[in-house]
Design a protein that fits this description.
four-stranded mixed β-sheet, 2,3-Dihydroxybiphenyl 1,2-Dioxygenase, domain 1, 139 residues, alpha/beta
Length: 139
């Protein structure tokens, strides 16, 4: 089989998959707070979300319920351990994005500030205690 030189499947080359306490609550949070669109939610027999696929600017972001499909993974909220990974996302206007996200319920870790690498950046925490960095280039 020949190696693909381009992403022939048109899927994202790299996509975060977060383990969350409650898929339905996480999806609602990401929709209203981070302006993600929802493309799919798979439900368990009880009708509650077990897996979700969302997008931000056509980039795939996924989440799955703790213990789903036999996974031993826990969210930072449940484990009490801060995630060593920060999810970084470009946005059009970090000031406006930050204000709306905090208004909608995101916890502020740091307000927008200029970084030495040429971005204005803020950091926010979601329901499951993942850290998100939203940034706008300022060069």
């Amino acid at each position: 089989m020949a190696a693909l030189s381009q992403n022939d499947t048109q899927e994202a080359w790299l996509s975060p998959y977060m383990t969350v306490v409650d898929v339905d609550a996480a999806v609602e949070f990401y929709k209203k707070t981070f302006q993600f669109s929802v493309s799919e939610i798979k439900c368990a027999e009880d009708g509650k979300g077990i897996h979700a696929e969302m997008a931000y600017k056509n980039q795939l972001i996924m989440c799955g319920k703790e213990a789903a499909y036999g996974s031993p993974l826990k969210s930072p909220r449940t484990s009490g351990v801060e995630s060593p990974i920060t999810l970084c996302v470009l946005c059009d206007d970090v000031e406006a994005f930050y204000a709306m996200a905090v208004f909608q319920g995101a916890q502020s870790i740091s307000a927008p500030d200029n970084m030495e690498w040429g971005y204005r950046m803020c950091r926010l925490q979601d329901l499951d205690h993942y850290t998100w960095c939203f940034m706008t280039p300022v060069f």
